[in-house]
Specification:
The protein has 8 helices and 5 strands; from the N terminus they run E-H-E-H-H-E-H-H-E-H-H-E-H. It is of the alpha/beta class and about 220 residues long. Helix 2 runs antiparallel to helix 3. The chain starts with 14 loop residues before the first strand and ends in a 14-residue tail after the last helix. The protein has a single domain, classed as 3-Layer(aba) Sandwich (Rossmann fold). It has a 5-stranded parallel β-sheet with strand order 2-3-1-4-5, sandwiched between helices. The structure holds thymidine-5'-diphosphate. The site of thymidine-5'-diphosphate (TYD) has 14 residues, from helix 4.
């Protein structure tokens, strides 16, 4: 059964996160949703994690393209990126009444570091809750694809996490689905193997459940 999404407080912008495995097609859906929201006259800040701030870009390089990083150091660096991101970009934008659409957020840490690296999803959840000062998205959209589909789509260029074996990516995938199943009002899970236009339709339809977005129209592509 489809649940109505939670609405942000009236004076605050809408906060949407896209999550999913590598190669799930998040960036296309981020672009389409931002186009649709902008066409509806809303101000939208679009960002991604890790990255999105100057410090975040440096952390991104260390995490994805640097040398060996121990699992706990990896979790703390991703958490530091999110703390900076929330303080400098996400919370100020939401407080100004702008919408924020982010490509990945806290669930990526819970799934990749908590479940993928086996550091314990609950512990990582607590770490992230502290790092982001309890700020969680109004809606998280999980683009679900099997690990082997993600691997094929990524092709031959891999960052440090993408190089992990399919079993790691399977654990990550399953954990995204568990998070969504535990809080259906705050999640939309879509089958990322479907054509992008169909996924966009599903996402816009779900957002129609938020009164301020009842008239949102799909982006043309
Ligand atoms: P992403 O920017 O989505 O990769 P790309 O730009 O190559 O598509 O994410 C980079 C990698 O970092 C990806 O494998 C997921 C991983 N990641 C974590 O492990 N934890 C996190 O908290 C985040 C935000 C990303």
């Amino acid at each position: 059964m489809t649940q109505p999404p939670s609405s942000p407080p009236p004076e605050r912008g809408l906060f949407v996160a896209f999550e999913g495995g590598d190669g799930a097609g998040k960036s296309t859906q981020v672009r389409l949703l931002v186009t649709a929201l902008t066409a509806a006259g809303r101000s939208v800040v679009v960002t991604r994690q890790p990255g999105g701030t100057e410090l975040g870009s440096q952390i991104r390089d260390l995490l994805l393209h640097g040398g060996e990083v121990s699992p706990r150091a990896e979790a703390l660096l991703f958490a530091a990126d999110k703390a900076q991101h929330v303080d400098h970009l996400i919370r100020p934008a939401l407080d100004r009444g702008e919408d924020v659409v982010t490509d990945r957020y806290t669930d990526s840490s819970i799934a990749y570091q908590g479940a993928g690296r086996d550091l314990g999803p609950d512990e990582i959840h607590r770490l992230l809750d502290w790092a982001v000062g309890g700020l969680f998205p109004d809606l998280t959209i999980v683009l679900d694809v099997p690990a082997e589909v993600g691997r094929q789509r990524r092709g031959s260029v891999h960052d440090r996490l993408e190089r992990e074996h399919d079993e790691f990516h399977d654990r990550v995938r399953r954990h995204f689905l568990d998070l969504a199943a535990a809080a259906p009002a705050r999640y939309l899970v879509v089958d990322g193997t479907q054509p992008p236009a169909r996924l966009h339709t599903e996402i816009v339809t779900r957002l129609h459940g938020i009164p301020a977005l009842a008239g949102l129209r799909e982006a043309s592509g």
